[in-house]
What does this fold into?
Amino acid sequence: MASRRKRKKNLNKWLLLGGLTVLLVILVAVFFSDGAKEKVKRFAEQNLPRPAATASPSGPPARTSVTLFFLSEDDDLLHKETREIPAGPSTADEAERIIVELVKGSSKGLLSPLPPETRVRQVFVTKEGVAYVDLSRESVDKFAYGSSSELGAVYSIVNSLAYNFKSVKRVTILVEGAERETLGGHIDISRPIVPDFKLVAR
It folds into this structure.
Protein backbone atom coordinates (compact mmCIF):
# COMPACT_ATOMS: atom_id res chain seq x y z
CA MET A 1 0.00 0.00 0.00
CA ALA A 2 2.75 2.36 1.00
CA SER A 3 4.72 1.49 -2.11
CA ARG A 4 1.68 2.16 -4.36
CA ARG A 5 1.19 5.53 -2.73
CA LYS A 6 4.85 6.30 -3.23
CA ARG A 7 4.68 5.36 -6.93
CA LYS A 8 1.62 7.55 -7.38
CA LYS A 9 3.38 10.47 -5.71
CA ASN A 10 6.42 10.03 -7.94
CA LEU A 11 4.17 9.86 -11.00
CA ASN A 12 2.46 13.12 -10.04
CA LYS A 13 5.84 14.73 -9.53
CA TRP A 14 6.99 13.63 -13.00
CA LEU A 15 3.76 14.80 -14.59
CA LEU A 16 4.12 18.20 -12.91
CA LEU A 17 7.75 18.43 -13.99
CA GLY A 18 6.83 17.39 -17.53
CA GLY A 19 4.06 19.99 -17.65
CA LEU A 20 6.43 22.71 -16.46
CA THR A 21 9.00 21.63 -19.06
CA VAL A 22 6.43 21.79 -21.87
CA LEU A 23 5.28 25.23 -20.67
CA LEU A 24 8.90 26.45 -20.55
CA VAL A 25 9.53 25.17 -24.10
CA ILE A 26 6.42 26.99 -25.34
CA LEU A 27 7.44 30.26 -23.63
CA VAL A 28 10.98 30.03 -25.06
CA ALA A 29 9.62 29.38 -28.54
CA VAL A 30 7.24 32.33 -28.34
CA PHE A 31 9.97 34.64 -27.00
CA PHE A 32 12.49 33.80 -29.71
CA SER A 33 9.81 33.87 -32.39
CA ASP A 34 8.77 37.42 -31.37
CA GLY A 35 12.41 38.48 -31.11
CA ALA A 36 13.12 37.17 -34.60
CA LYS A 37 10.07 38.99 -35.92
CA GLU A 38 11.22 42.19 -34.23
CA LYS A 39 14.72 41.80 -35.72
CA VAL A 40 13.22 41.22 -39.16
CA LYS A 41 10.98 44.24 -38.68
CA ARG A 42 13.88 46.46 -37.61
CA PHE A 43 16.03 45.22 -40.50
CA ALA A 44 13.22 45.90 -42.96
CA GLU A 45 12.68 49.39 -41.59
CA GLN A 46 16.37 50.18 -41.83
CA ASN A 47 16.58 49.01 -45.41
CA LEU A 48 13.38 50.49 -46.76
CA PRO A 49 13.98 53.31 -49.26
CA ARG A 50 13.64 56.56 -47.35
CA PRO A 51 11.72 59.49 -48.78
CA ALA A 52 13.96 62.04 -50.40
CA ALA A 53 14.65 65.06 -48.20
CA THR A 54 12.78 68.06 -49.43
CA ALA A 55 14.93 71.14 -49.77
CA SER A 56 13.79 74.05 -47.67
CA PRO A 57 12.40 76.78 -49.85
CA SER A 58 15.03 79.45 -50.30
CA GLY A 59 14.10 82.49 -52.29
CA PRO A 60 16.47 85.04 -53.73
CA PRO A 61 18.68 86.85 -51.21
CA ALA A 62 17.16 89.94 -49.64
CA ARG A 63 18.06 93.26 -51.21
CA THR A 64 17.85 96.81 -49.96
CA SER A 65 17.56 100.13 -51.75
CA VAL A 66 20.36 102.66 -51.13
CA THR A 67 21.07 106.19 -52.30
CA LEU A 68 24.45 107.00 -53.86
CA PHE A 69 25.88 110.44 -54.58
CA PHE A 70 27.75 111.23 -57.81
CA LEU A 71 29.28 114.50 -58.96
CA SER A 72 27.95 116.24 -62.06
CA GLU A 73 30.27 118.26 -64.25
CA ASP A 74 27.34 120.53 -65.14
CA ASP A 75 27.02 122.12 -61.71
CA ASP A 76 29.78 120.59 -59.52
CA LEU A 77 27.09 119.30 -57.16
CA LEU A 78 26.36 115.80 -55.94
CA HIS A 79 23.31 114.10 -57.42
CA LYS A 80 21.34 111.22 -55.93
CA GLU A 81 21.15 107.87 -57.63
CA THR A 82 19.14 104.96 -56.23
CA ARG A 83 20.44 101.43 -56.48
CA GLU A 84 19.75 98.03 -54.94
CA ILE A 85 22.40 96.03 -53.11
CA PRO A 86 22.33 92.75 -51.13
CA ALA A 87 21.06 93.38 -47.61
CA GLY A 88 23.02 92.75 -44.38
CA PRO A 89 24.24 90.99 -42.44
CA SER A 90 25.81 94.09 -40.82
CA THR A 91 26.14 97.83 -41.38
CA ALA A 92 29.79 97.36 -42.32
CA ASP A 93 28.90 94.81 -45.01
CA GLU A 94 26.28 97.06 -46.57
CA ALA A 95 28.60 100.08 -46.28
CA GLU A 96 31.30 98.19 -48.16
CA ARG A 97 28.83 97.30 -50.92
CA ILE A 98 27.88 100.97 -51.22
CA ILE A 99 31.53 101.95 -51.80
CA VAL A 100 31.87 99.14 -54.35
CA GLU A 101 28.85 100.58 -56.19
CA LEU A 102 30.47 104.03 -56.16
CA VAL A 103 33.58 102.51 -57.75
CA LYS A 104 31.40 100.93 -60.45
CA GLY A 105 30.22 104.42 -61.32
CA SER A 106 26.98 106.11 -62.25
CA SER A 107 24.32 104.54 -64.44
CA LYS A 108 23.05 108.01 -65.39
CA GLY A 109 26.18 109.49 -66.92
CA LEU A 110 27.37 111.28 -63.77
CA LEU A 111 31.06 111.41 -62.85
CA SER A 112 32.60 108.36 -61.20
CA PRO A 113 34.21 109.48 -57.95
CA LEU A 114 36.95 106.83 -57.95
CA PRO A 115 39.03 105.05 -60.61
CA PRO A 116 37.45 101.77 -61.78
CA GLU A 117 40.64 99.93 -60.75
CA THR A 118 40.05 100.87 -57.11
CA ARG A 119 39.52 97.97 -54.72
CA VAL A 120 37.64 98.37 -51.48
CA ARG A 121 39.97 96.69 -49.01
CA GLN A 122 37.77 97.01 -45.93
CA VAL A 123 35.01 99.04 -44.33
CA PHE A 124 34.23 99.00 -40.64
CA VAL A 125 32.14 101.17 -38.34
CA THR A 126 32.98 101.96 -34.72
CA LYS A 127 30.52 102.26 -31.84
CA GLU A 128 31.22 105.99 -31.90
CA GLY A 129 29.78 106.22 -35.41
CA VAL A 130 33.03 106.61 -37.36
CA ALA A 131 33.15 104.63 -40.61
CA TYR A 132 36.63 103.70 -41.83
CA VAL A 133 36.88 103.18 -45.58
CA ASP A 134 40.13 101.54 -46.66
CA LEU A 135 40.83 101.86 -50.39
CA SER A 136 43.59 100.35 -52.50
CA ARG A 137 46.43 102.50 -53.84
CA GLU A 138 44.73 102.66 -57.25
CA SER A 139 42.34 105.21 -55.76
CA VAL A 140 45.30 107.61 -55.78
CA ASP A 141 47.63 106.31 -58.49
CA LYS A 142 45.03 105.92 -61.25
CA PHE A 143 43.28 109.27 -60.91
CA ALA A 144 44.37 112.85 -61.65
CA TYR A 145 42.28 114.80 -59.15
CA GLY A 146 41.36 118.41 -59.69
CA SER A 147 39.83 120.29 -56.79
CA SER A 148 36.24 119.63 -57.91
CA SER A 149 36.78 115.93 -58.69
CA GLU A 150 38.57 115.39 -55.38
CA LEU A 151 35.79 117.14 -53.48
CA GLY A 152 33.30 114.95 -55.34
CA ALA A 153 35.25 111.78 -54.55
CA VAL A 154 35.51 112.52 -50.85
CA TYR A 155 31.90 113.60 -50.34
CA SER A 156 30.48 110.91 -52.60
CA ILE A 157 31.90 108.45 -50.05
CA VAL A 158 31.09 110.43 -46.91
CA ASN A 159 27.56 111.50 -47.87
CA SER A 160 26.61 108.08 -49.30
CA LEU A 161 27.47 106.35 -46.02
CA ALA A 162 25.98 108.99 -43.71
CA TYR A 163 22.77 109.26 -45.76
CA ASN A 164 22.09 105.52 -45.72
CA PHE A 165 23.15 104.75 -42.15
CA LYS A 166 22.01 106.90 -39.24
CA SER A 167 24.73 105.30 -37.11
CA VAL A 168 27.48 106.79 -39.33
CA LYS A 169 28.32 110.32 -38.18
CA ARG A 170 31.79 110.74 -39.67
CA VAL A 171 33.97 108.97 -42.22
CA THR A 172 37.73 108.39 -42.30
CA ILE A 173 39.26 107.51 -45.67
CA LEU A 174 42.38 105.34 -45.63
CA VAL A 175 44.61 104.20 -48.49
CA GLU A 176 46.26 100.78 -48.11
CA GLY A 177 45.37 100.86 -44.41
CA ALA A 178 47.17 104.15 -43.74
CA GLU A 179 45.99 107.70 -43.16
CA ARG A 180 46.73 110.26 -45.85
CA GLU A 181 46.59 114.03 -45.88
CA THR A 182 44.74 114.14 -49.22
CA LEU A 183 43.80 111.99 -52.19
CA GLY A 184 45.08 114.49 -54.73
CA GLY A 185 46.40 117.50 -52.86
CA HIS A 186 43.18 119.47 -52.27
CA ILE A 187 40.84 118.03 -49.60
CA ASP A 188 42.11 117.19 -46.13
CA ILE A 189 41.25 113.57 -45.26
CA SER A 190 43.67 113.19 -42.36
CA ARG A 191 40.78 113.44 -39.87
CA PRO A 192 37.23 112.04 -39.77
CA ILE A 193 34.98 113.97 -42.17
CA VAL A 194 31.41 114.95 -41.36
CA PRO A 195 28.84 114.78 -44.19
CA ASP A 196 27.95 117.96 -46.05
CA PHE A 197 24.53 117.77 -47.71
CA LYS A 198 24.76 121.38 -48.85
CA LEU A 199 26.81 119.93 -51.70
CA VAL A 200 23.78 117.92 -52.90
CA ALA A 201 21.69 119.27 -55.78
CA ARG A 202 18.11 120.18 -54.84
Observations:
- The beta strands are 63-71, 78-86, 120-125, 130-135, 170-175, 178-179.
- Helices lie at 2-47, 91-104, 138-141, 147-164.
- Residues 34-56 have pLDDT under 50 and may be disordered.
- Residues 48 and 54 are 18 Å apart (CA to CA).
